[in-house]
Amino acid sequence: MDKNLADKRSQSGANRRMLNPQVTPDFLDSTLEWRRMFAEIWGTFLLVLVATGGGVVRELSGGSLSLAMIVVAPGLMVMAIIYFMGTVSGAHLNPAVTVAFALRGNFPWRRVPGYCFAQFIGGIAAAMFLRAMFGKVGALGATVPGIGIGGANSNSLSR
Fold first, then answer.
1. CB 41 within 8 A of CB 122
2. DSSP states of 47-67
3. Which DSSP string corresponds to 140-151?
4. Residue 21: burial class (beta carbons within 10 Å; 0-12, 13-18, 19+)
5. Which range is least confidently modeled, 21-30, 59-68, 77-86, 136-145?
6. CA distances (Å), 75 to each of 46, 133, 140, in order?
7. Class assignment of domain 29-141?
8. How far apart are CA 19 and CA 7, in angstroms?
9. What's the whole-number mean pLDDT along residues 58-76?
10. How confident is the model at residue 159 (pLDDT cuts 50, 70, 90)?
C-alpha cells in the first residue's frame, strides 16, 4: 500500500491531471514540442483542405458531389487524423478544443498559445493552397448568403 502512495506522489503534476494516467512519456517530453506543432499544423491543414475543398470541387465538377459526400468527408478526415496523430499531439485541430482541454485541466496552459498558433497556420495554409490551386471558386468553402439575400438581410436574419 505504501509503495502505491509513493508512486502517486512521484508522478508529475501534469501526469496526475490527465484523465488517462498511462499517457505516453513522449507527450510529456518538452523536447519533442516541434513534433506536436508539426502534427497540429498538418492535421489542421488536412481538415480545412477537405472541409472547404468539398465546396470547391462541387463547384468545379458541376455539382457531381452530393451534399452527403461533402458533409461526411470532414468527419472521416478528423477520424483519420486522430488515428494517425492522436498520440503525437492529441489531434486537437481546433483552438476551441485546445482551450477546453486546458480549462478542464487535461492540457498544460503553457502549450495553448503554440497549439493555437499552429492550428491557425495550418488553416491559413490550406486556404492559400486551395486558392492557389483553383482560384476563387465556390467561395472557397465559405458560408455566404444565398442568391437574392444581401448583406443587410443576412445580418438581420442572423440576429
1. yes
2. HHHHHHHHHHHHHHTTS-S-H
3. GG---PPTT--H
4. exposed
5. 21-30
6. 12, 23, 19
7. mainly alpha
8. 17
9. 88
10. low
